[in-house]
Each structure stands twice: as C-alpha cells, then as structure tokens.
Amino acid sequence: MNASAPEDRAHAPDRLTPEELRTLFLFEALDDDQLNWLVERGRVEERTGGSPVFRQGEPATCFFVLLSGAVSLSRTLHGDEIEVSRTDQRGVYGGAMQAYLGDRVEQVYANTLRAVSDAEFYVLPADEFANAVRTWFPMALHLLEGLFFGTRLTNKIVGERERLVALGSLSAGLTHELNNPAASAVRATAALRDRVTGVRHKLAVIADGRMDTSRLHGLVELQDAAVKQAGAAPAMSALDASDAEDAVGDWLEEHGVDGAWDLAPAMVAGGLGVPWLETVVDTVGEDYLDSAVRWLAYAIDMELLMGEIDDAVTRISGLVGAAKQYAQLDRAAQVPVDVHALLDATLTMLQAKIPSGIRVVKEYDTGLPPIPAFGAELNQVWTNLIDNAVDAMGETGTLTLRTGREGDRVLVDVIDTGSGIPEDIRARIFEPFFTTKPVGEGTGLGLDISYRIVVNKHGGDIRVYSKPGETRFQVCLPITEEPEADADPSASDKQPAE
C-alpha cells in the first residue's frame, strides 16, 4: 500500500471524513462542499479476502474506491475467468464508471473485481456518482461524452470502411478468378460454333449418296468411338504430344489429306493415333478419307471444347458457391456452421492475393462438430488473419490452417513463417488503430474487429504466439451457444482501468 487508511472512525464507522477523502488522489482537488457531499452519500464497506466486490455483467449500481487491501480485476471469456490486473494501490477505482452516460449505454459491470485480501472500499451509489460528475464537471462531462460516443462512432464508421475496403479487395480477386474461366468458356463457345458449321458441311459431302450405307454406318460408329475415347484421353507431356502430332501429321500428308498439321493436334488431344487412322481408311476407303478425317476431327474437337466449357462453368459455379459461403448471404442469424467450409471459402476468395511462392497447408481435424456462429463475421476474422499472415511472409513462406478441439471449444490456428511480432508491441496488436503497416496500407482495425467478433459476439477468445519464423493466431470458439455479449462488434466496451 502507498498509504494507510486512518484507523480512527469513531465518528461514523461506515463514513469517511472530508479529510480522509482528500487523501485519495481522485478527490484531492475537490472543495469542502463537494467533499461533504461525498461524505453524506458514500459509505465504507468491507470485503473479506477471496470474495467478489462486483461481477461482470451484473447491473452497475455502485462506484468503488479502494481504501485498503488488495484487489484483482478479471474478465470472463468462454467460461474462464482471466485475471487482467492485480493491485494494492490505495485510491484505485472501478465499477459504475460510465454512470454519467445514463441509459444511453447499458449500465453493467464490464469486469469482475475481487478482494484478494480483506479489503475496505469507499462506495458511492451509481446515480450519485453520475450526478456529481454532471454537476461538478460540466465541461469534463461533455468531453467524456464526446470521447466515448465519438470513439464508438469512429470505430463503427472506420470499421465499416475497413470492411468495404476488404470487400473491394475480395471483389477484385473474385472478379479476376471469374474472368479466367469465363473467358475460356467464351473462347470455347466461339470455337465450338465454327466446328458445328464444319460438321454440317462435311456431313453434307459425306452423305451426298456416293458413300454406300455400310461405310456410312461404319463412319458413325468410328465417330462414337472417337468421341468416347476423347473424353477419357489421358494427359500427355508436351514432348510426347509433339512426337505424336508429328507421326499423325506425316501419316495424313502421305494419304493426301489437306491441312494435315491443323488436324493432327485435335487427333492427338483426343487420344487418337496412326493405328486408329488406319481403321478409318479400312472403313471408308481412300476416296472419302479427307472428308471423313475432317468430320471426325471436328467431332473430337467439339467433345474437347464441350469439356472445356463444362470445366469453366464448373469453376465459375464453384467460385460463386464459395462467395456465397463466404458472405453467408442466406444466414442472418447464428446457426451451426462447418468451420472448415468457412476456412475453405475464405481461401478461395483470397486466392488471388496469395503469392505463388506461399504454400498453403491444411491440417483439419475432420471430427469437429458444427458450431453455433455468425458465419459471415467469422469469415471476416479468417480474412483478417490470413491477410496479415500473407503480408508478414511477403512472396515466400508457408501458411498453415490447423483445427482441433480442446474440451468444449474448437481451436482454429492461422500460422505463418514470417519474421514474427516483436515482443514490445505484441500486447498492443488488438488495440484499435494500432498497425505496423506503412501509412496508407492499414487502418489498424483488422485485429480489433476480429477480437470483438470472436470475444464479444461469439463468447470465444483469440490469442497470439510469436517468434521469428512462426507466428500463430489461435481462435477459440465455444461448441455450444453462449449468450451474445455485444451485438455490434464495432461498439467499444473496453473500460480504462486505473
């Protein structure tokens, strides 16, 4: 203790004298009338060691000032009480510190205060404390109100801006990812239209009555076989494909087929070679070989182009599904979600932002149950953590996403191989507007917003472990639904502790 409380209170055991109040740094500058007012309205209360002074979440009815003893301040996170600070400094205070704001904010205790040893407090009812602040310090009251509501509004506006910037970045990445398969589908469709035109022309030539029925039937059977083989053709290396095209091109030229080198790539891509071409000759004869080969090449090309279109459309559908999963467009309320599906959707959305030199490793515990959550907001957490991890590594490194279970909680680790977070700033990384990025490259709200979403909205916890070459952010989420602590993740509930 910095000072000892006066021992003689024969005048009134549950009251302090004005002189005793003046020894507390909080009241030392007050005048006699103000001190007398506090004497009349406040009282002295004792707490035995180990007993709570007030509990987190209970209605904030009183303002407490420590007179003697030691206390600890703690917060409850997903059922665990975590000690924030411990002190025996005479005059420290807590409790209904925002009573002066009235019903504009919810008046509950933000923390739990516990007497570590037998302790004595000066206790002032919350409404009396609020009246004193409003009456004695009108200018300070306006400043405090402006600071509180201004900071909360700023957090909300800048937080929304942060989300919009992130959304814009993700939209750009999604657009880029969608552009590739869409452009591929457009090219394949245009090429397919040309092939269909060619097939119609060649079919008219082949079926003009000069080819007998048996050969025409044989050609149709060859077409069916070629299309089937093209659909199951194995991938070839560039060197093997080049050798096969040379062999097919030479054979076609030897048999007088025009444009042999234009037809050879389609034949090889469809898995067809010289032995199959010999079968074509045996079926239709040399006179119809040119038209038959072109017709079959068109059929193979069409099959390959339809496969390309199918792949492109499937890719687009997958991206749209990932975007829907990421945004959780059809889920406004807290519902059971698959953590792995959310992580995969976020990775898909961020794919364009992850350099090719960064390897992504997934270590998923497939036995995890669904958890009650706001999916879109958890995806915002994954986005912030993954984006920070990628920035920390630069162009090369390993990003690991690991999931597991610890009792009644799901653990999600986002690990990078960057340079690490210096120990002297590690305690500040969840502060609003604190950022290590250059000016203009970060608002400092990503981790603050993530903290509020995980802790305030989901009743979970978020931790960080860091050393050079390995930084791990661990998100702990309850498997069973907990009461929602703060519906607005941008609203501040962090009280300054004295």
Task: Record keyword descriptors for this entry.
498 residues; alpha+beta; Jelly Rolls; Heat Shock Protein 90; 5-stranded mixed beta sheet; 13 helices; 15 strands; 48% helix
Protein model, in words:
This protein is α+β, with helices and mostly antiparallel strands and 498 residues long. It has three domains: 18-136, Jelly Rolls; 174-318, no CATH class; 330-478, Histidine kinase-like ATPase, C-terminal domain (Heat Shock Protein 90). The chain is built from 13 helices and 15 strands. The chain has helices at 18-22, 32-41, 126-136, 138-206, 213-231, 238-254, 260-269, 274-284, 289-327, 339-350, 375-393, 423-426, 446-457, and strands at residues 43-47, 52-54, 62-68, 71-77, 80-87, 93-95, 112-115, 119-125, 335-337, 358-363, 371-373, 397-406, 409-416, 461-467, 470-478. The strands form four sheets. The chain has a five-stranded mixed beta sheet. Helix 5 packs parallel to helix 9 (289-327), helix 6 packs across helix 7 and helix 10 crosses helix 11. The protein is rod-shaped and about 125 Å long. It starts with 17 loop residues before the first helix and ends in a 20-residue tail after the last strand. 31% of the residues are buried.
